[in-house]
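# nightly structure sweep
# worker-07 picked up a monomer target from the shared queue
# config: single-sequence mode, recycle default, output format = structure tokens
# input follows
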Amino acid sequence: MKNPKALVFALCLTVWPASGDQNLETAYRRNGDAITSLFSSQQEVLQRSSAVLQEGRKRLVYGVVISPDGFILTKASEVEKASELNAIIDATPYSGARIVAVDTLWDVALIKVTAENLQPVSFASGEPAQGSWVVANGASSKLKRRVLAGIISANAREIPAAGGAALGVILKDGGKTLEIQEITPNGGAAEAGLRKGDVIREIDGRKLSKRADLTELMKERKAGSTVKVTIQRSGKESTVEVRLKARGEMSDQQSRNDQMSGEYSLRRTGFPRVLQHDILGARDSVGGPVVDLDGRCVGMNIARADRAQSFAIPAKEVQEIAARLMKNE
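# output follows
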């Protein structure tokens, strides 16, 4: 197989202008036609072993095909509210895709379509070194995947939740109980049906009587995890499950970097371990496989973080997540 790294370098040397003009022709930029054409073998892997997940005709995200009989992994937060899911694998459409299990810590959903003889990804046995070339899905037509190429830009590491994990509530000041004064609209408490005036009594069986108790407990939890919250409403107690979200991702305020980054993922922090790469696709380009130059899956794209960073769950963890979700399906 040709060496894309060497060919890309040679092409760049060939077209680099001798004058003061430092702009490459469009075709020779990293994701231009002349460059992406070098990754045809990787494109074939993405064609066969990644899925385009749609709501109606709108593309939501990609997925990783993990079994011949129609199991797919994808980014949960981008598909969980879809009223109708369908998938395109290679050039074949599959209607009636359904979410069968979710790992909230990793933001991964297991999807099932009725299919057979699919080509699942082949996972790499090791982890790519910093500077290694990788390839992932870019924009796609209904029939053909388009590839984007880049490099692993940082060693694997944890990405903590921005601002820490939070329930998504504002408590009433000065009270003797943990009474909810306000519910954050896009927080986990709102999704679980908590209301203004509810009093939080326990979380995961731990009795809480003051704000400091709740603050300390939240320090022990990670965004994406689920807690059991016991509340008192109208004199009656009930327990609901609340999915914690990153405090920073529930805020409407954007940093200057965010304003310059375009559309990033709904959830982009709070991952136990990720590979960082510089393939900057759109928000709906995540969810699919990231492959090396041999076409082996080194990870699953999980977030477009900003204009300079994208994250992928390493292959080892992807396989562990897949085995666990399929076992509990």
